[in-house]
Write a structure and sequence with these properties.
Distance between the termini: 31 Å
Structural class: alpha/beta
CATH topology of the largest domain: Carbamate kinase
Number of helices: 8
Mean pLDDT: 90
CATH architecture of the largest domain: 3-Layer(aba) Sandwich
Strand content: 15-25%
Shape: globular
Order of helices and strands: HEHHEHEHEEEEHHEHE
Helix content: 40-55%
Radius of gyration: 17 Å
Number of domains: 2
């Protein structure tokens, strides 16, 4: 959500993302989003500032709430009905996550926004996304990134890095590929939930992916 500025929230990026989500709703897709918070502060970064790890992760959870609230309003402006659910208690601001309520909101054709991670430190947004996907019966876990798939090494550091079109869960774990958290991969492996990794920075990619075009990398069996 930071766009080219690298930090904070870029209104133009929010608008573009919201329009892409609206296009998916026009295709009659059921959509649930897990919002991260790395555009404002990552837990590991906070630790470098001298903030204790548990507190740092709590800061990260609250950052996802900020992002989720901002994105909800932009989606609503685009005419997309939304429902936001938080894993952490935010008083009167956001309802706390309850699975049955989320299922009900999906049945009402709303786009679900999950914030607050899992509400506990030491768990990444990836793991939160994998768990929520399983809880609501999603067909796939789609991870939007800044790269166009999974590589055998960091493509930003090594020009010779090789991209996978398909890779097994176990190989991702054995190679310790860091495009996605290992706990999330293990959870998806145990429950046969495919993971699709793609570049969200290219306009139209999400629609093409949903329509079956081969983009990014599939992590599966």
């Amino acid at each position: 959500m930071a766009g080219t500025q690298g930090t904070g929230v870029d209104p133009a990026v929010l608008r573009t993302l919201a329009q892409e989500i609206k296009e998916l709703k026009d295709l009659d897709a059921d959509i649930a989003l897990v919002i991260g918070g790395g555009n404002l502060m990552r837990g590991r970064q906070a630790v470098e500032y001298g903030i204790e790890r548990v507190t740092a992760d709590q800061v990260g959870m609250l950052t996802t709430v900020i992002n989720g609230l901002a994105f909800r309003d932009v989606l609503e402006e685009e005419g997309v009905a939304t429902a936001i659910h938080s894993a952490v208690q935010i008083g009167e601001m956001i309802p706390q996550y309850v699975r049955d309520r989320a299922i009900s909101d999906l049945a009402e054709r709303k786009v679900i926004i999950f914030v607050g991670g899992l509400g506990s430190p030491f768990f990444t947004t990836d793991t939160a996304a994998a768990l929520r996907a399983l809880e609501i019966g999603a067909e796939a876990f789609i991870k939007a990134t800044k790269v166009d798939g999974v590589y055998d090494s960091d493509p930003e550091k090594r020009s010779e890095a090789v991209k996978f079109d398909h890779i097994a869960y176990q190989e991702v774990l054995q190679r310790r590929l860091r495009v996605i958290d290992a706990t999330a991969v293990s959870l998806c492996q145990d429950n046969d939930l495919p993971i699709l990794v793609f570049n969200m920075g290219v306009k139209g990619n999400l629609r093409r992916l949903i329509l079956g075009e081969k983009l990014g990398t599939i992590i599966g069996r």
